[in-house]
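Q: What residues go here?
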């Protein structure tokens, strides 16, 4: 079933507002969630909304107010997010960092005690469309599902890392977990009794598996770091980098008491105009992107793409033809719609 993008945004916004979220915050969260589905990230779009609504109902997600400024230097800012909605906090941080980068050349905002920030890729084109490069990464210090390479006990979350890079054409949009898969996908497949495409998890005895059930069986297994059993030391290293950029710079993370589902965030904006210039930057990045696409395909009929190219094309197509939602998303929101008195969107086909 397909739905108009704006109908989905309005539906999500109405549910959030009926749950007590301020209008600007409800609009920000709704927009980012639907953008995730537009780009095909269907575990990190509206699939997250029932959880967000539950957090608002319980009081675990703060509804009102602004972040507390803990440190403010010209190009380095630290916020306490006060468990406010993550998408709204990130968009506010992007606005501030972009303004500062226009003067300083770069600006970094780190946020402790944010709530969950949804799909990282959903933010990046807002920067690249302005000729800005953006780095965004996060961790959730309140839970652990990924073991360090060579270990059995979980220490980390999947710790995604993302980058938006302008090229003068289709931007490069990188959004990858530093683990082999995500909590969202393993939880969904476990509920549906399905398996992963490859051995991305490890059971409690240290054997690789494609069955997400090992994460729930005793002794509990873990998600493998990016690279799996063979080269997982690479993902492990990237995971530690994310921990330093988030918890380390924010001064708040896994060493502190748990508060519930959330995020510690690192966001950096770089303005190429302050370096060699935007034209020079895009000449280089555009050349590299073109060279990648010109590479002879390893599989006949499957062209080489740059990261994010498929998602950007999918978002453009679904904006005009309607958004195809994963089958379980609207049923999971129906009880909330009934409870809050919100009309569900109508399908276009």
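A:
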């Amino acid at each position: 079933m397909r739905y108009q993008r704006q109908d989905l945004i309005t539906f999500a916004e109405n549910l959030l507002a009926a749950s007590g979220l301020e209008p600007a915050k409800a609009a920000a969260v709704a927009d980012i969630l639907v953008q995730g589905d537009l780009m095909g990230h269907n575990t990190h779009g509206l699939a997250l909304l029932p959880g967000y609504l539950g957090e608002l109902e319980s009081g675990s997600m703060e509804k009102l107010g602004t972040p507390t400024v803990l440190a403010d230097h010209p190009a380095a800012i630290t916020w306490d997010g006060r468990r406010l909605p993550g998408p709204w906090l990130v968009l506010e941080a992007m606005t501030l960092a972009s303004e500062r980068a226009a003067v300083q050349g770069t600006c970094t905002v780190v946020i402790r005690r944010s709530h969950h920030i949804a799909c990282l890729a959903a933010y990046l084109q807002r920067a690249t469309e302005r000729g800005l490069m953006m780095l965004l990464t996060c961790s959730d210090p309140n839970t652990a599902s990924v073991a360090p390479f060579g270990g059995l006990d979980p220490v980390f979350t999947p710790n995604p890392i993302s980058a938006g890079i302008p090229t003068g054409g289709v931007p490069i949009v990188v959004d990858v977990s530093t683990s082999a898969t995500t909590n969202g996908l393993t939880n969904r497949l476990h509920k549906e009794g399905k398996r992963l495409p490859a051995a991305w998890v490890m059971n409690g005895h240290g054997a690789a598996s494609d069955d997400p059930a090992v994460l729930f069986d005793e002794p509990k297994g873990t998600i493998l770091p990016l690279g799996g059993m063979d080269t997982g030391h690479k993902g492990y290293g990237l995971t530690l980098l994310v921990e330093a950029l988030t918890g380390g710079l924010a001064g708040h993370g896994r060493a502190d008491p748990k508060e519930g589902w959330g995020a510690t965030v690192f966001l950096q904006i770089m303005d190429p105009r302050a370096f060699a210039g935007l034209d020079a930057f895009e000449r280089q990045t555009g050349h590299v992107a073109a060279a990648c696409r010109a590479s002879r395909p390893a599989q006949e009929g499957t062209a080489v793409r740059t990261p994010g190219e498929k998602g950007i094309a999918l978002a453009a197509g679904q904006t005009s033809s309607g958004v195809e939602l994963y089958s379980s998303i609207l049923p999971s929101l129906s009880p909330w719609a009934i409870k809050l008195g919100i009309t569900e969107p109508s399908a276009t086909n």
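A: Context that may help when evaluating the design: The first helix runs from residue 5 to 18. The domain at 181-223 is CATH 3.30.60.50 (Wheat Germ Agglutinin (Isolectin 2); domain 1).
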